[in-house]
Amino acid sequence: MTRPDPRLALVADCSSCAGLCCEVPQFQASADFAIDKPGRTPCPHLGADFGCTIHAELPQRGFPGCVVYDCFGSGQQVVAVQFAGADHADPGVRAAMFDAFEVVERLHELLWYVADASARALPRGLADEVGGLEATVLASRDAPAGVEVTSLQARTGALLDEVSSHLRRGLGARDLRDADLAGRDLREEDLYAARLRGAVLIGADLRGADLGPADLLGADLRAADLRGADLSETFCLTRFQVRAARTDATTVLPDVLR
Ligand code: SF4
After folding, report:
1. Which numbered atom of ligand 1 lies nearest the CA of 76?
2. What are the tens digits of pLDDT across the range 104-161?
3. Fold for the domain defined by 171-258
4. What is the pLDDT of residue 1?
5. Confidence of residue 2 (pLDDT cuts 50, 70, 90)
6. CB of 4 within 8 A of CB of 35?
7. 59-110 residue pLDDT tens
8. Is 256 in contact with 8 (CB distance < 8 Å)?
C-alpha cells in the first residue's frame, strides 16, 4: 500500500496558529514588503485575533511577499502541536514559540523537498538514504532546541542533488544551474529535465514549456509566465514558486500543488 504524500501535511493552517510569520521575521522595505519591520515585532497589520487586517488588499498595499509566503505548515506545528494549550499571551511562552518557529520553519521546508524525493522511483540505496534523512529531519522537528539546521540543510542539498541527477540521467538535459534567464523568451528552448537549480527566471516566458523532471530547487520564478507549461513532474517545486509565478488553468502542476 502506498503511503499518503507527506507534503499534504505541510500546508499552513493559520486558524491553528498565532500569526508567527507576521511577527518573527525581519523585513526591509522592498518590492515585496512595504515597510521596515524588525524581527520579533508584530506587523502593524496583525489583528488581535492573529488575522491580517489587510489580507484582501495585500498586493495593492505593497505586501505581495505576504501573498506568496508559505510556512510549510510550521506555524501550526509550533503553536498547536509543540505548544498545545500554552498561553500565547505569556511573553516567556511567546519567546520560546519564536525560537521554535525559527527552526521548524526551515526544517519543514527541508521536509517538503525530502518528501518529493521519497515519492520518486529510486534505486534501493538512494531510497534508503532519503528515508533515513526524512526520519532525522522529523526527529529534529519534534525536538528543535539546539538543532544544527545548517548542517541538515547541507546534507539535504547534497542528497537532493544525487536524486536530481538520477531523475534526469540519460535525458540529455541541459545544466542551467544558477543561470540568469530573467526576462528571457524561453518558449523555443528545450528545458525538458533541465537542471535549473537556483536559476533566475524572473519574468521569463515559459509558456507551453514541457519541463519534465527539471530540477527547480531554489529557482526564482517570480512573474515567470507558466501558462500552458507542464510542471507535473518537476523536482523540488514549492507553493511559494507557483504563487509567485503567472499561472492559469492551463498550467499543469504536480498533484500535490493542484
Ligand atoms: S506561520 Fe504559517 S500557519 Fe502561522 S499565520 Fe503564518 S502562514 Fe499561517
Report:
1. 3
2. 999 999 999 999 999 999 999 999 999 999 999 999 999 999 999 999 999 999 999 9
3. Pectate Lyase C-like (2.160.20)
4. 66
5. confident
6. no
7. 999 999 999 999 999 999 999 999 998 998 899 999 999 999 999 999 999 9
8. yes
- For ligand 1, whether the C-beta of 78 sits within 6 Å is no
Retrieve residue 68's grid coordinates.
506568496
75 lines ligand 1 (CB under 6 A): yes
Residue ranges of domains in the chain: 6-168, 171-258
C-alpha cell at 48: 488581535
Q: Is 44 exposed, middle or buried (0-12, 13-18, 19+ CB in 10 A)?
A: exposed
Residue 102, phi then psi, degrees to nearest 5: -60, -30
User: Do 231 and 251 touch, CB atoms closer than 8 A?
Assistant: yes
Residue whose CA is closest, atom 2 of ligand 1? 75
User: Taking a C-beta distance cutoff of 8 angstroms, is the pair 191, 172 a contact?
Assistant: no
Distance CA 43, CA 110 (A): 26
Compute the distance between CA of residue 141 and CA of residue 147 in angstroms, rounded to an integer: 8
